[in-house]
Specification:
30% of the residues lie in helices and 27% in strands. With 379 residues, the chain is an alpha+beta fold. The protein is elongated, with a radius of gyration of 30 Å.
Length: 379
């Protein structure tokens, strides 16, 4: 197999680099070590192998003779392997996808077995064709996964600056059960007058498209927040912005503005999970933020909740991956989460880490985003 980088020539000009990814030999022999996966081969330009790969046509060698053995690459210049190959019958079949060779399969028969004939090509080409399609699709999938993961992580915020009156901790864990990243996002936005904006959202779906939409919405929220829009108006403007985008993907979002000078918070929700509030005395509740339709539905009014909090209260915002378990009501899971947080007496960072370990010790199906804020107020 050629790696993606090796599809373009490497090493000497025009050379092709291949990596053996699998090998099966039906009997123990001295060449077993030479057939182990992981070995790398460099086929220089003008050799039979580079011509074979360029032609993307199968090659049948009824009997391997000295002329063929002389063309073996240096990596196969092993007496034991030459002994096995000499007199054998060999079929080389390229793994072809979209007109190019991803690699090739080698089928061999011992000298004491009937040699391959043209009729054997059909079955071998069928095997190679199916393998090539699977490998090509896996490569595309891997490319998309890598691109979306890089994109999403580049769009998630860097550690927020130290802000007066509030302490922040957060975690983002991509799904451990799918190779595609989701559309979770969050942000911590400094506002005038020592206030802070806390935002969290979840774009429906996974993959590059969800990551792109997530980036657009997160940027829009940050821009609207710098205009000092109250939460209800901000979500209304975000919804209008989403309507102008050239896609129909929905997203949930919760936006909170906390003022440490007054201990007052204002929250609005577009279809997002309710936040959990834990008071300094351990009492906890799900905040009854009015829940409107998700972002992208259009023509929605976003009502707000205003509340006063005691200094030292803990506010938890999260995406559904944290609490979504088959057969369990999400609000019940959030209430249980509140009780667990009330029993924690560690630092905010330690509390956040302990929460992640407890909720999903053996992996999770969906992305998980947690944003915690200790609302300390101003002295």
């Amino acid at each position: 197999m050629a790696s993606e980088d090796d599809l373009a020539p490497q090493g000497p000009e025009g050379a092709v680099v291949m990596h053996r990814v699998a090998a099966v030999h039906h009997e123990d022999s001295d060449c077993r070590e030479e057939l182990r996966p992981g070995k790398t081969f460099v086929y220089t330009t003008g050799t039979g192998m580079t011509r074979f790969l360029a032609a993307v046509e199968p090659v049948l060698i009824p009997q391997v003779g000295d002329e063929v053995l002389q063309q073996l690459p240096a990596e196969l210049d092993n007496p034991a392997l030459r002994l096995v190959l000499k007199g054998s019958s060999v079929l080389l079949v390229p793994l072809v996808a979209h007109g190019g060779a991803l690699g090739f399969l080698v089928f061999g028969r011992r000298p004491d077995r009937p040699a391959f004939v043209a009729a054997d090509l059909t079955a071998c080409e069928e095997v190679a064709g199916r393998a090539a399609v699977a490998l090509h699709n896996a490569r595309i999938h891997s490319d998309e996964t890598t691109a979306s993961a890089v994109l999403q992580r580049s769009l998630l915020p860097t550690p927020p600056p130290r802000l007066p009156g509030v302490e922040i901790a957060y975690r983002y864990h991509p799904s451990s059960r799918t190779t595609q990243v989701g559309g979770d996002w969050f942000d911590v936005i400094p506002l005038p007058g020592h206030r802070v904006g806390l935002a969290i959202g979840d774009v429906a779906g996974h993959g590059v498209h969800a990551a792109v939409v997530m980036g657009q919405l997160r940027t829009a929220v940050k821009t609207l927040a710098t205009l000092d829009l109250p939460p209800g108006r901000l979500l209304a403007q975000l919804d209008a912005f989403a309507q102008r985008l050239d896609h129909s993907q929905l997203a949930t979002c919760l936006y909170c503005v906390y003022d440490p000078t007054t201990d007052r918070s204002t929250l609005a929700s577009a279809g997002h999970l309710p936040p959990v509030l834990v008071a300094p005395d351990g009492s906890n509740e799900l905040l009854k933020v009015p829940v409107a339709a998700p972002i992208g539905v259009g023509s929605v009014t976003f009502d707000t909740l205003e509340l006063l909090t005691e200094p030292g209260s803990l506010l938890l915002l999260c995406t559904d991956g944290l609490v979504e378990t088959r057969g369990q009501d999400i609000e019940e899971a959030l209430r249980a989460l509140g009780s667990r947080l009330a029993a924690q007496h560690s630092s905010l960072e330690e509390t956040c880490e302990a929460l992640m370990r407890h909720q999903h010790p053996e992996g999770h199906h969906d992305d998980i985003t947690v944003l915690m804020a200790r609302l300390n107020g101003m002295p």
